[in-house]
Amino acid sequence: MSHTPFPPRTERAVQGRAPLRELTDELGVLYGGDWNPEQWEPSVWREDVRLMREAGVNLVTVGVFSWARYEPEPGARDFAWMDEVLDLLHEHGIAADLATPVASPPPWLGVEHPDTLPVDADGVRLVPGSRNQFSPSSATYRAHALAITRDLAARYARHPAVRLWHVGNEYGQIDFGDEAAHAFRGWLRERYGTVDALNEAWGTAFWSQRYRTFDDVLPPRRMPYLVNPTQSLDFRRFTSDQLLACYREQHAAIRAAGATQPVTTNFMGFFPHVDSWSWADDVDVVADDQYPDQADPRSPADAALVQDLMRGLGGGAPWLLLEQAVGATSWREHNLPKSPERMRLDSLQAVARGADGICFFQWRASTAGAERFHSAMLPHAGPDTAVHRGVRRLGQDLAKLRPVTGTRVPARTALLFDWESWWAAEEPGRITERLRTLDQVRAFYRPLWDRGIVVDVVRPGAPLDGYDLVVVPQTYLLDDDAAKSLRAAVEGGAGVVVGPMTGVADRNAHVLPGRFPVPVTDLLGASGEEWVALPDGGVEVVGTQPWAPALAGRAEVHAELLRADDDTDVLLRFAEGHLAGEPAVTRRRTGPRGGTWYVGAVLDEGLLGAVLDDAIVRAGVGPAVPGAVPAVHPGSHVFAVTEADGATGVEAVRRGDAVFLLNRSGEHRDVVVPGRWTDLLTGADVVDVVPLPVHDVAVLIPVDPTMTNSPDEPRNW
Length: 717
Ligand code: GLA
Fold this sequence. Notes:
Elements: H1 21-27, E1 30-35, H2 42-55, E2 59-62, H3 67-70, H4 80-91, E3 95-100, H5 107-112, H6 139-156, E4 162-167, H7 178-192, H8 195-202, H9 229-256, E5 263-264, E6 266-267, H10 276-279, E7 287-289, H11 299-313, E8 319-323, H12 340-352, E9 355-360, H13 386-399, E10 413-416, H14 419-425, H15 437-450, E11 455-458, E12 469-472, H16 480-491, E13 495-498, H17 521-524, E14 526-533, E15 539-543, E16 552-564, E17 568-574, E18 583-588, E19 595-599, E20 601-603, H18 605-619, E21 650-655, E22 658-663, E23 669-679, E24 685-692, E25 697-702
Parallel strand pairs: 1-2, 1-9, 2-3, 3-4, 4-5, 6-7, 7-8, 8-9, 10-11, 10-12, 12-13, 13-19
Antiparallel strand pairs: 14-16, 15-16, 15-17, 16-20, 17-18, 18-19, 21-22, 22-25, 23-24, 23-25
Helix pairs in contact: 6-9, 11-15, 12-13, 15-18
This protein binds alpha-D-galactopyranose.
């Protein structure tokens, strides 16, 4: 059976309005998790819905892994049990996020049609027995997936319990097999038109790789030595597009059945195999799965970054946290538990950063199967447990946060991030494999989080109007559009901070000839000529007169040989090694405020924080709540973060009219918040100072009749 590889983008059902609005107006903050009733007897279902109600659950995701139950034999259909499940949910006033079950085909599909199974880069065909055993390029898989989804959608499009559709699960499969090879060639034909253009783009004059026809091209399977970086980059682009084509087909089938509910799928934050920017327009609401590592002390900052990305993907609109763990995960090598307090903090952090729904994997712990030790809202030991009490408490909290639904999170700082750039930067054959884009993105984000500065994650090239500070960590592919929007930002008075290994290559991953970062050297007033891997232990970097001569720290992994123009300041210099005496960080003043900074090395946290402090001050951005900042940075020599009110360790975010204060300090804090407020969580009146017990959260709204809660309108704080 044939199918169109790239069906056109589907119309959003809810064009022109916030897709979740109807649901959140009715239910408030959405709260729940994955529910897998097919693992239980119907008597358990009834106990489940009762307990869900008691816990404040108002949304559950059902049917994610139900394909084998719906279609036990090829072509058979058993939907009666799902009828009962959805009716039961409806009776109890719980909304359903109904999944299309296409992430885990029944074993018979792979056995009868091995062409549906993915092949890895070594040519090994993966087998059923786990999940995700499908090739996004398999026509047979896609036909079967469409058939089951069409029937499912026809049956439930108008079921009153179904309020949201969830396509597949965590799309991310890669296939290197023959059908993928065929589809890859089609994708390349569409992209390049002629094989000459392909040869040009891939630089096949190198190592005698010239192709005579598209038919000779293969996916980047196991090779004797280093892969052609553009071939590999294009295969990543293709894989993301191929998965998107699967999603679009499913979305279209749901719409064709007359369903008008919002349709989405669950992203996985900075997941490497899907370019979520290119998917974002196809989901009616952005949804994400987040599993911060409890063993990592910086995971609250990293989670905040992912949440700021989710807002970015949705153009600032509210998004859904569709999965997180209540306690421990079971897929890491060593899974530390999450305390109920941390679970509450992290959940309310997501609401603070724009989530209108907080859900978990999963409602009831599975007794069998690969995830039997994964935490759940209802643990094996039942409702009389610390975990479940935490779940009930969160349900009560979220019920009080209805006023924040639909509102936005204002930010004056943008951070650029791009999947294609990440991919291209990490193709093999580079100076150091230790320089990782995500490490850099996190490194530039963390000092901002430490200082309480809220960030929007923005795609390079998007307009930067309204941002006073733009941070550009390792953007290896910085094209003309991206350079243009940075230029406009600088002309508008913003500060722009550019990290190392930026503006190195073009969209084909060819190194741009000239001094780097080629597209923006004039903007930076500085330029580089050599990328330098640093010896283990790094090198010393020191502050310069008159900027911060007492400042010293280290650069590790990667540095660059830079030259500063005459009107550009050198803020830091290398003190030893190959680059001794050369500039490490430069600053060009572009007007009374703003400026451009070039960070030509991977700096330690203290030094990078000091550079960002300089940019923060000159750009005039500040924390969302001046007295509350998560951490006082030891390297903060230039811009002293105030500790006066003792509120350090408090993550503070404004959303609409509300101020979220999350005490992550491990101690009691009194946070200064000038004015009169009501705490939505406790109902308490607050005047000027809010006492915040250890691990606690306050959500303050102003007691001021002139301040209205205006959804979708960022407030100018
Ligand atoms: C993912 C999946 C879930 C489950 C969880 C476990 O998010 O979508 O089905 O496997 O991980 O953490």
